[in-house]
Each structure stands twice: as structure tokens, then as C-alpha cells.
Amino acid sequence: MEKKAILVVVDGLGDRSVKEGKTPLQLTPKKHLDDLAKRGSTGIMSTLGRGIIPGSDTAHLALFGYDINRYYKGRGPFEALGVGIDLKEGDVAFRCNFATVDKDGRVIDRRAGRLKDEGKELAKSLQGIEVEGVKVIFSSSTEHRGVLVLRGEGLSPEISDTDPHTAESLPFKEARPLKNDERAKRTAKIVNEIVKRSQEILSSHPLNKEREEEGKLPANIILTRGAGIYQKIPSLKEKYGFSSCCIAGAALYKGVAKYVGMEVLEVPGATGRIDTDIEAKARESKKALKTFDFVFIHIKGADNASHDGNLRDKMLMIQKVDRLVELLREEEENAYLIVTADHSTPLSLKRHSSDPVPLMIYGPGIRQDKVELFDEISTSSGCLGHLKGVELMKVIVDLMGCSHMVGS
Amino acid sequence: MEKKAILVVVDGLGDRSVKEGKTPLQLTPKKHLDDLAKRGSTGIMSTLGRGIIPGSDTAHLALFGYDINRYYKGRGPFEALGVGIDLKEGDVAFRCNFATVDKDGRVIDRRAGRLKDEGKELAKSLQGIEVEGVKVIFSSSTEHRGVLVLRGEGLSPEISDTDPHTAESLPFKEARPLKNDERAKRTAKIVNEIVKRSQEILSSHPLNKEREEEGKLPANIILTRGAGIYQKIPSLKEKYGFSSCCIAGAALYKGVAKYVGMEVLEVPGATGRIDTDIEAKARESKKALKTFDFVFIHIKGADNASHDGNLRDKMLMIQKVDRLVELLREEEENAYLIVTADHSTPLSLKRHSSDPVPLMIYGPGIRQDKVELFDEISTSSGCLGHLKGVELMKVIVDLMGCSHMVGS
Description:
- 2 copies of one chain form a homodimer.
- Chain A is α/β, with parallel strands linked by helices.
- Chain A folds into 2 domains: 4-71 and 232-399, Alkaline Phosphatase, subunit A (3-Layer(aba) Sandwich); 79-229, no CATH class.
- In chain A, 33% of the residues lie in helices and 20% in strands.
- The first copy, chain A, contains 14 helices and 15 strands.
- Chain A has helices spanning 24-27, 31-39, 56-63, 68-71, 76-82, 118-124, 182-203, 206-213, 236-240, 251-259, 278-291, 301-307, 311-328, 389-399, and strands at 4-10, 41-46, 92-101, 107-109, 130-131, 134-140, 145-151, 221-229, 244-247, 263-265, 294-299, 335-340, 357-362, 385-388, 405-406.
- Chain A has an 8-stranded mixed beta sheet, sandwiched between helices.
- In chain A, strand 3 (92-101) and strand 4 (107-109) form a beta hairpin.
- The longest helix of chain A has 22 residues, at 182-203.
- The interface between A and B is medium-sized, with 32 and 38 residues.
- Strand 15 of chain A pairs parallel with strand 3 of chain B.
């Protein structure tokens, strides 16, 4: 290892013109981000390629240097890893919601009135289920969210969601095989059985009785989506020889990090929301850099603000990132600092878009281009040019001195 | 042929910030390179792709427009072609060193005290060896270097080096098959036999007796590395219809040039070192341009300086290239002049890196972008954008009028 590296991914940071022809990054004073852009190399990046809208999971996989066509097998396993489930090869995992259905099976609320902390208690009642020899693991996550894992022989992720994905009061769906294959048929059948049982168990759960008495919606079913199969893949350590860790609030990012072999550090105050404790994250990163060669920091708040169409909050998060960078840049002698995003989430769209994201690399000996500001427009004329997400890690690996020559 | 072209490859030219945030190219006055950049098209290039560290051999193959995954078969054949051996399809070639081993087979010096001119005489004693029906061809190269070629049926390049590649006094290695295959096993066995015989023959060579009497290290063994198999590939002439030649000092570059069908011109004074006679090279190039459509000029010195971490010499070489360009630009009416590098060799690293290299194309009717300086930063905002090495030749071929429309 010649050098270390810190990768800061600001989720949903990229945007379009929102005011006076300027993007939120252009509108926000951000002294340290600009100063580093001035002293470093900049560029612009399409994480999955031009015109392709990245998901958060696929974008991160690409940023970590993994070809998503080969290594992306659905979101479920990331969520499962993210909440701390120790997956085995062949497990099929799902994202789940606790939801509220009426007596006719119509989904009254996909989020059961956004649970607070009841998920954990409810989840206990769903343990120990076994269907056709397949073991069921269920874990609650934040609010109404949870993860379902099926463990056993002959499972397939090729099945449809039971979550109807709509605010209208439609009945929850039957899981259907998406392939005409015995495994898919069997897995769909098992999932339908589990959903049915969850309804039986949860409907009579004392906590739900309490909720109903309080006039709240009961969390009386779990609905599945995002099926994915877990496969063990070559870790960053195996590929490049360096140790790595993850500092993130939300489960998904911890999950992708674990998938590629990073150690997930738990940072109190890292909430994955706009109230995240940026000072704590910086402190933990600097500490982590003593132990690990590569530190991945995920900042979620800007994406949340974008999905809400909230310019003020997005600008606030940019200033938080500016503070983070101020605290991290002291490491400049030892490490490269890379700041970028996983995708754009334009405020005007309230969804991800394919607009490319700004990229900055700062550190020892780095080429200094003429770019003086860190935003989507300025960095697009930087010396790094226009990269694909999957190329970034190769560049970082060479900066760290962990790459190998091709040829001689 | 509508036009001719001169491709100047300045080995290891690209760099990182070394002083005041500037690269050696930015620090060096280079009137003619800058003037041509101003009047031409510029860009930046990753010869093997982003984040990939190019070897000298693979980088040149890519610059000549050949897909390395298909056409790169190890370095040995390039070295063999470079010293003038006429290879046949299926020959397996190795780079060799004359080395010094003690009586226990430990390598005292991998370079036998860096021979001067004795290699040629010593090489004679290694002629005519035949092992298991395989003919052995050996040729000395510069200093302690040489080339070994095996010619016969059933050979494989999938064998390990006998050179231990270290300055520590470790025993030389046995060649081992890198594949579980009869050809590889047989080739390894033959190489081990040849190395053994070289030790017997060279140990008793009068020249080595003399060296020992003079207190010098005897060149008492040859050690092999970089095995590669020779295959005949479509030449530039066959692919594009134009004639081409190479002006280079070092064997490797002559070898790659021969591999793609260029004629190798011998230029007295072209040393492949910092003392190379740039005026002679320019003179020869201008002469060559009367006979050939495409002239490849290789300048090695900047890479040597970079491997030594010597900024002064690197800047000196840049000025030599500036002089070369001054002399060549007179051809502007008839020919395109392309200046680039095969890879970066940052002074701070003393090794190749994946940092992209500057590119400039000057000649009749070429688009003039806004770039006014020839360096890594300035050219990165040029109108050619960011190319891959293998794309460059396509661009040149069309400028020369030798390309074909796809579609109609």
C-alpha cells in the first residue's frame, strides 16, 4: 500500500438547474469543496453509463468497481446484509414492509401508518417458521421496514412482489414465478404461504390489538419485494489487497459494503437522514483510516431532500458535506480524498435521473486542473473527463499503489 | 493515400504534479509543442483504458491499433524481433539476462555487473544447442541483455521465469509449467536444460576467465523471463493499405513495430537513452517520409528519467522532443504530426501509472481547439476528448484517407 483513500458518496447530490439557471451545488456556498476541487483533479461521472438511471444499489456496486451485470442479483441480499443477517450462498432475500390489510386483503396502508419501534417486537413473532423444509429468517429494519430471508435447497429469486406498490387500496398480490421453472414456482408458493402465515400471526398479535385500540393502523401482514439471491463474490481485499470499511447510516449501503467485503463500522449519530451527525462521521473516519486502507463514507440526506423536492434541505446537506470535507482534508498527506455521488436526484423530478454526477479527487501529487468549483458544470471540464462509475475504483486503486501493470 | 503521418511516442511522458502544482510538461518551456497544440487538435488518452497501468509493450500494441486481448502474447517475441531474429509461427521467445551465479546457484548479480560488449562474443558459444528436437536460437542485446528463442513442435509460453527478479542473493528458479498441459511441461523441462547448459558453457568461457582475473563478475548463466509465443498477425499494410516504418533506439519498440509489419530503420545515434541524437532522428524521419506513408518515432529518454525520479533529465528530454517537433513540422503540407505518450511514469512513483497521457494532432485542415499548451491538464479540455489508445490509430487512418465507411 503506497497510500490510503477516503471515498465520500453524497447520495443523490447531482441535480438540474433549479434557480437562475443554477444547480443546488452551484447555489450553495461550499468553501472547502471548492478549494479541494481547485487543488485536485475533477471530472464528471455516469455511474452506470450515459442516460442510464442508477438505482442506489447498482450505483454503489459500480462505484466499488463491480460490473453490475455480473454481480447484481437484486436488492434483497443488500438489505439483509445491511441489517446484520449472515447470508449463505443460495439464500433468497426480500425487502419487506409491515403493512395494513383489511379483511378482504386490500392494502389500506403499505407502511402500517409508518411504525415507530414496534417492528422489532412484531418480528419476534415471525421467527421459527419453516415451509417445505425452507427456513424463514425475518428481521425488522427502520420504521415499517424489514427483511425476509429464505434458506434451503432449490430456491429462486425469479418471483414477483407481493407488495402492490400503490397508495390505492388494492389487494396484495400473489407472488408469481417469473420463469417457467420448478424453483421459481416452488419459491413463489413458499412466499405466498409465509405472507399468509404472517397475516395470521400478526393479526392476533397483542401489539396490534393495542394499536387498534389506540386508533392506529395494525401492522397485520408483511409484503415482499426486491427478491434477490445471495452469492459470495471476490472481496475488495481479494481483488486489490487492501482493507476497507464503511461508515453509513442506512442499511442498504452497509449491505452493499458488506457484499464487497468491507467492515461495517457503527457510528452513533449516523442516521442516514438530514439530522446525521457529520462531526461524528468525520471523527470515526479519521480513526478508521488508522486501521483501514480504504474508508467509504455514505451521506444520505441530500437524496432524501431531493425526493421531497426540498431545496433548502439539499443546500443544508451540501454545507454539511463541506464541513465533513473540511475535517477530512487534514489527512491529505496520507490519503486521497474522493468526493462524488451515486446518482443525481433532481429536485424537480423527486426521483433518480441519469444526469451525470460531479467527481473530485484530491491528494498527494494529484494533477491540478483549472476547475475552481465543485459542481456539475465546473467539474465537467476537469482533467478526469467523463468517467463510468465502474472505472473510478480502478483509478483509485492505482493511486493507492495496489494496481498491476498489464504487459511489461 | 491522401496524406502521410508521423507518430511520435514519448515514452513515459505523462506525470503528476511535481512542483507548484505543475507537471514536468507544464514546467518545461516547449515553444514548438505548444505552438502545434495551439494550431491543432488535442486530447487526453488512456492507452489501455481508465485506471489500467500500461506496460510498454501492450501500450504500443494498442497505439498501433491492435486489441491487446487478441494480439498480445507476451514480451519475448517483441524482444526477439527487435534484435533482428526472424521468428516463425509457434516459436517461443524469452527475454534473458546474462547473470552471475555462485557455485551453489545463488544469483550474485542479475546483470553480471552490467556487461559492456562481451554479450556478443558470449552469445556465439551458445549457438547450435538442440534439446529434444527443439532448436535453440540465442542473441545478445544491449549490455547484459539477450533473447532466447525455442523453435520446434509442441512448445508453450505458459511457463514461469528462471530469473528470480530480486537483488537478494537467491538461487535462480526452475522453470515450471503454468498450465497442467504436456506442452508447458515439456517447454519448462527444455528451458531448465538450456539454462543448465548455459551455465556449463559460460562458466568455462575464456572471456569469463578473463573477467574473473580482472576482478569482474563472470557472466556465467542465462536467466529467462517474459515467455511469449509468436503468431503472425495482420500487418498495418494488410489492415489499412499503407506502408510504415519505425525509428527507435531500444529493441522492444523495434520489435512491436516489426510485429505489426513496420520496416525498422537503423539510425546511428538513436540510443534509446537520454543522449539520443534527436537531430539524426528528425533527419531520418524526414527522409523516411519520402518512402513510407507512416513513420513511427519512439523517444525513450523521458521514461528512463522518470524511472530514476530525475526531473531535470525529464525536462531535458521534453526540450529534445520540442526540437524534434520543430524539425518535423516543416512537413506540415504533406503529413499529419501526432505527438503522445505510451503511458505516464510519474517521477514521484518511478513506475508506470494509469494517469492518462496528452495527445496532439497537427496537420492539414485539422480542427483547431482552444488549447494553447501541450500538457496533461491543457489537452484534457481539447476537442479530441478522452480516447482509448486503441482508438487513436483509427483516427489517424481516416486522416490519412485510408479508412472505410461503415454503412452507406
